[in-house]
């Protein structure tokens, strides 16, 4: 009797095994921008490489443009394991308790992309990944978007022109301090709510790289843009740490390679996408694009200089010193 039951059990296992082997590991990758942005394309490239190189053992489901989770909840859902992968702007880690990332929001802290890359790939960027691990999050890499421009329905030549205007910001106390320093009124809103907030006048203006402006059609409801390039939007590519550590070692190694190559691809396309987006803003003709004079750029820098001192206690004086040391001497964009 026992042999028969044992035999039936082994047979059942045999039939089950191939089915079990075919059940892919699913990575849900949620983000808040459209697919035709640097981050959107980076996610698609990661999906392609991960699925190809694991021969289908991993399936990546991408949920773009806030279709699964919006700004506010996406990091929490990652911590809960409801989604496995994100690439939030580094401006959005303050609410999680990793305030140090807000140092990346300090006006003019990065003179150019090469300096930013040194920070991301060096002890500062990798050290911040360590802080994420205390929150159950594993940092896998840094993706680019680009330097931010300002938009509103008023001409903005110098810093005095934004006084009294309501500007949407990401959830960053440094960005809040930045606009308050200019006499503007900052308001945190989810990226998915930005277009409607501008269209209805809930806010007057916003800051973002051109690719985020055209892909959300923000330029259709903003009459003026000023090429201040006063700050940077970049992303931390992150996964749920428990999920990542629980992967079979060979799969994890393959995915590390896919992330590395997707990151190189994403860095390659980001500048081009922003250049094309700025050209599209000009071509659409609904937004007047203004380039500040040298004197006006100096006035923007002077007006925003106090933010570093003011926010040192929040992000860490030593971190600001390290950032300035890492980027000193680099030519401005
Ligand atoms: C924003 O919220 O303005 C951006 O961070 C959106 C994004 O992820 O690029």
Describe the structure.
Helix content is 48%, strand content 17%. The chain is globular and about 85 Å long. The longest helix has 36 residues, at 249-284. Helix 2 (38-53) packs antiparallel against helix 10 (249-284), helix 6 (173-181) runs antiparallel to helix 12 (306-315) and helix 12 (306-315) packs across helix 13 (317-327). The strands form three sheets. Strands 7-6-8-5-9-11 form a six-stranded mixed sheet. Strands 3-10-4 form a three-stranded antiparallel sheet, with helices on both faces. The protein has 13 helices and eleven strands. It starts with a helix and ends in a 6-residue tail after the last helix. It is of the alpha/beta class. The protein has two domains: 3-145 and 234-272, D-Maltodextrin-Binding Protein, domain 2 (3-Layer(aba) Sandwich); 149-231 and 276-327, D-Maltodextrin-Binding Protein, domain 2, CATH 3.40.190. The protein has helices spanning 2-22, 38-53, 71-80, 113-121, 123-133, 173-181, 194-200, 210-214, 241-245, 249-284, 294-304, 306-315, 317-327; strands spanning 25-30, 58-63, 85-86, 137-147, 149-152, 166-169, 185-188, 205-208, 224-226, 232-240, 288-290. Residues 32-33, 89, 145, 170, 191, 208, 212, 233 line the site of (2S)-2-hydroxybutanedioic acid. (2S)-2-hydroxybutanedioic acid is lined by residues 32-33, 89, 145, 170, 191, 208, 212, 233.
